[in-house]
Amino acid sequence: MQLTIDGELFTVTQRDDGASYDFTWDSGPRDSYGFTVARSDGAAMSTSDLERHARSFLAQVDPSTGFIGDPDS
Fold first, then answer.
1. Helix (H, G, I), strand (E, B) or coil at 41
2. β strands within 15-67, DSSP E
3. Between vectors from CA 62 to CA 31 and to CA 26, what angle results, nearest 5°?
4. C-alpha atoms less than 13 angstroms from C-alpha of 54 in its C-beta half-sphere
């Protein structure tokens, strides 16, 4: 699945367990940078849930580095 959030493009892949999702930030400044989210109850997430997680991720990214936190740690 492709999501465009605030002008940024993500590829979202649902894992075989049905409750975990890998996000790749395709339009970000770093190749293959992204994150993973999962529900502890094993349920699938809605598109609005996935969009919320992507927005939360983007809010944490330092625009000067393209990373969350220190990229060298």
1. coil
2. 20-25, 34-38
3. 25
4. 28
CA of 46: how far to CAs of 15, 26, 36, 52, 67, in Å?
Answer: 14, 21, 15, 10, 26
CA distances from 5 to 8, 15, 22, 41, 67 (A): 5, 21, 15, 26, 17
Q: Is 0.85 surpassed by the pTM of this model? A: yes
Q: What is the pLDDT of residues 8-62, one digit of tens each?
A: 999 999 999 999 999 999 999 888 899 999 999 999 999 999 999 999 999 999 9
Write down the residue that tokens 């109850």 correspond to. Answer: 41
